[in-house]
Design goal:
By secondary structure, this protein is an alpha/beta fold. It contains 13 helices and eleven strands. The protein folds into two domains: 7-231, Spore Coat Polysaccharide Biosynthesis Protein SpsA, Chain A, CATH 3.90.550; 235-322, no CATH class.
């Protein structure tokens, strides 16, 4: 394990930027260039090719020694990022997708926030979403959250907010290696929702999150070339994510549980309609403790505890009456 001792001066001596790469040959040059264009911060760039078939090394090798390029068999983005962390040397980590780009000053902004708040281990920022050449939207994080503290134009969140873990772009997550390792890194069994899962555990683990006020990242959405779009319908990942939410739900303030439990409810409903009754029963047994937080869960739990034959009959009757 990397020893990040030596105080804040040593801790902020550089940032390791980890880029998981899967069939993004057309965009990886722009992504790497955006890191090299950061000024005032020492960086290392580690690209982990997760079994690409479009020969991205032809682009990456053009950067020479400025970029470390490693390959692994296709094991998903979580495994690629964790592999990159194991190879990295700096005490601060940032995870950048291979089709996104850091805006100028992003890394220096994050380090500035850390200098202003000693001991701060996690910073995030707002981001712009592009579809093709058009701006789809801007996600301004401080507008989501009430009661933030101000720090020279930026912000601090000193409590858990569900809006601070949901819909956060990976390229805005700048985390100390020590904190990352404390939560076990990315869950390699998740090929989607792994960003939300990581933020969930990070925010629960730390007492304070720094939030850069300005847009720090451009996210380029392309649903035709997205591992998330391919993986999100797989009930295995949705179920694991739901269980990991429930593992820590008692640590979440009551006022912040609703949207997280809605995700569990949706997974429970999907498992029911897909006929995965064993999954339904296990989830129902776990989520019953939170029936008062979201009433609809109570009905789903009651159905989930019924014998499978009776559940099938209810589903048939539901389809008949709907038609």
């Amino acid at each position: 394990m990397f020893d990040s001792g030596g105080g804040d001066v040593d801790r902020m001596r550089g940032v390791s930027v980890i880029i998981p790469l899967y069939n993004k040959k057309k965009t990886i040059f722009r992504t790497i260039r955006s890191v090299l264009d950061q000024h005032g911060v020492d960086t290392e760039i580690i690209v982990i090719d997760d079994g690409s078939t479009d020969n991205p090394e032809e682009v990456v090798y053009a950067f020479g020694d400025l970029v470390r390029f490693e390959r692994q068999e296709n094991a998903g983005p979580s495994a690629a990022r964790n592999y990159g962390v194991r190879l990295s040397q700096y005490p601060i980590l940032l995870f950048l997708d291979a089709d996104d780009e850091l805006l100028p000053g992003c890394l220096s902004n994050y380090l500035r926030l850390r200098r202003q708040v000693p001991g701060l281990q996690l910073t995030v920022g707002s981001f712009r979403v592009m579809v093709g050449d058009s701006v789809e939207r801007e996600e301004i994080l401080p507008q989501r959250l009430p009661n933030l503290d101000r720090v020279d134009g930026d912000f601090l969140a000193n409590q858990f907010y569900s809006d601070l873990i949901i819909n956060i772009a990976s390229g805005t997550i700048c985390v100390d290696r020590e904190l990352f390792e404390q939560v076990g890194g990315f869950d390699e069994a998740l090929w989607c929702w792994e960003i939300t899962d990581l933020m969930y555990h990070l925010v629960l683990q730390t007492s304070c999150v720094g939030i850069a006020a300005s847009v720090q990242l451009v996210v380029h959405e392309n649903s035709a070339n997205s591992q998330f779009e391919k993986a999100q319908k797989d009930l295995r990942y949705r179920t694991r994510f739901a269980h990991r939410l429930l593992d820590k739900m008692d640590s979440v303030p009551n006022t912040q549980r609703h949207i997280l439990l809605c995700s569990v409810r949706n997974t429970l409903r999907s498992a029911l309609y897909e006929g995965e009754f064993a999954t339904v029963k296990i989830l129902a047994e776990r989520v019953r403790n939170y029936e008062e937080d979201i009433p609809e869960i109570k009905r789903l739990c009651q159905i989930g505890m019924l014998p499978p034959l009776l559940i099938r009959l209810l589903l048939v009757l539901r389809r008949v009456f709907r038609n």
